Amino acid sequence: MSAQHMFGDPSNSSSQPNPGPPSPTRSTHRADSISKHKLVQITSHNQYTSPRLTREILAPSPLEQFRTWFAEAQSPPNGLPAVAEPEATCISTSTAAGIPSARMVLLRGVDERGFVFFTNYTSRKSRELIANPHASMTFYWKEQARQIRVVGTVEKVEREESESYFATRPRGSQLGAWASQQSKEIGETTLQDRLDKFEKEFEGKEVDCPEHWGGWRIDPFEIEFWSGHTSRLHDRFRYLLQDNGEWKIDRLSP
Ligand SMILES: Cc1cc2nc3c(=O)[nH]c(=O)nc-3n(C[C@H](O)[C@H](O)[C@H](O)COP(=O)(O)O)c2cc1C
Predict the structure, then answer these.
(1) Ligand 1 atom 4, closest CA
(2) Residue 81: which CATH number?
(3) What's the domain count of the chain?
(4) Name one GO biological process term (predicted).
(5) Backbone conformation region of residue 90, classed left if phi is above 0, alpha if psi is from -120 to 50, else beta
(6) Counting CB atoms within 10 angstroms of each CB, which of 131, 183, 195, 200 has the fewest?
């Protein structure tokens, strides 16, 4: 499989960023060469100890539960350490063919409609979200041995919302959004050249929100809360959205 095949062509149309699964030739090659690889062996056995999560203390709605945990990550109650940057989250997307990719983004808001983050609409993640409007977000709050998985359908946020959030960004980040053709292959000086160009263009003026920049919202149909415990006997509770709009809560085996 060529590198082009692996990473897709950013200049390509939005519908098929990453074509096709790995070819058999590539898999055979990997199997042949695997014995030559030096194994990085990790034998640590960290023990996680979070406050126990029980059905009795779970909120009836996952949004409420998320709010409680997020507030505890920011301002922890006695005995729990604070979480550095709890809004940092791993967002997983996939192509129409089902090839996944993941990367970190910053959660910028959450309400009954879903979980919002902002990005470039021509980036790899956005091209994948256009081709396959489903995503998963994973929060890992190491300090508190907590994990949350959100799975749902996605939609772009209203233009007005993107513009009003963009207006709150520092000027440098606003100009960066104009300069960066996110996920595109570029030359060594392209970014600086483009930044210089947009600095000139917006000199003495407010920086508008570019058309190619804005938010995505994940409207969840599944949210799981994971709380780490000793001997890998963690607590897991999954909320699943039912046809009648109610959330069904199940405990899952760790
Ligand atoms: C902690 C952290 C937060 C980030 N936040 C964002 C973000 O909010 N939006 C964004 O577009 N990229 C963000 N990035 C960069 C992305 O991880 C990624 O490199 C970029 O969006 C391009 O991804 P893509 O090529 O898969 O589209 C962040 C990276 C880190 C490590």
Answers:
(1) 105
(2) 2.30.110.10
(3) 1
(4) pyridoxine biosynthetic process
(5) beta
(6) 200
